Request: fold
Amino acid sequence: MLNKPSAFDGYPHKSPTGESKLLSTRLPILVSPSLHQLPEQLDNAETLARRPHINMLVHPETVQVLKMRSRIDEHLDWFFRNAGHTKVSTPLLAAGAGGAVARPFETVATEMEGTRLNLRIAPELWLKRLLVGGIGRVYEIGPAFRNEGVDATHNPEFTVCEAYAPFSTLSDLMAMTEDLLRTLNKRLREIRAEADLLTESVVDLHEDAHSHGLFREDFKRLPFIPTIENAIGRKLPNLGDPTVHQSLVDLFSDLSLPLPANANLPRLLDALCALYIEPLCTTPTFIISHPACLSPLSKSHTCPITNQQVALRAELFIDGTEYANMYEEENSPFAQREKFLQQLKYRSIDGEGDGNTDIDESYLEALEWGLPPTGGWGLGVDRLVMLFTGMKRIGDVLPFGTLRNVVGLAQRQK
Reply:
């Protein structure tokens, strides 16, 4: 006779003597007892955040989202392995964040007294060093950190997928992005019938009425500067002119637009993009040809249409949300130095970035050894999971929610 809590599969049965019994169809499985009565429903937001394990028991769809996330991770691995990329893991902790303009988390190490360390905000510079070393196509899926706010699509700790391919052009990167999303959508449609995944956990972005055939057509392309100029009915000033900052401030005044906080040149241009371009990106859309000042790590050239310096860059937006960023990497150490210097000038105005007023000389030295012409690509994995599961908040695709939930969970246990 078993004296521990057990689970059986079987059906009711009467013995030859007329006793009611359970006829087991497989050997019993030992389980652990619950010391609490499981609630029939649980809708209190505070309780959900404080006890995510109970939320998973009461709302099994939350488990299905995590299983879907695992399948999406598997597809990313399959896609890049199939394309000949080598998967690597690069440092999360270093002296200097690098790779993007954002406010990093800071810490110290007992072994390096007096040295400020940062959690990385992107793996980009590490991965490009590997390309200099001859690794060839490379990719990484892992965490990144930005000491910024929490909202429906942002969390200070998030997951990125970055991939780099020597001799890939911007056109190659955009075609790859379309292929990745279409093959992922096809794969998720195929697994909808699997027993361990609820049908409701997959948003079919190809045929469902909800999606209006989201991935059927080629993705739209909107050039940054011409799209804004068409919207406001006038030309933007020469973005390389020394007086361009004041000219844009005057433009905001003429259009009765509020200035963004710490309104340097990149922030002014970002604000115009958010107002006049991003709302047009309802279906999958590439915003292309960004002003060069918005992309310090990208190659740039003179646009034959606008005669402005623009980056060889594209961002993928769907329904007004950014999902992927890609560009042809700047591989000249001399041009990169100039772009770093310009970036430092903007940081001195807005107070953003890692607080480091020095140029990353180690990265420039690596470029001196020869980075081949390279296409670089990055995607927010959390947002991708949101897209394919229909979740509206980033916390809904994270096992323990956003940073607020994680910190609150620890504080409530004290």
Notes: The chain has twelve helices and 17 strands.
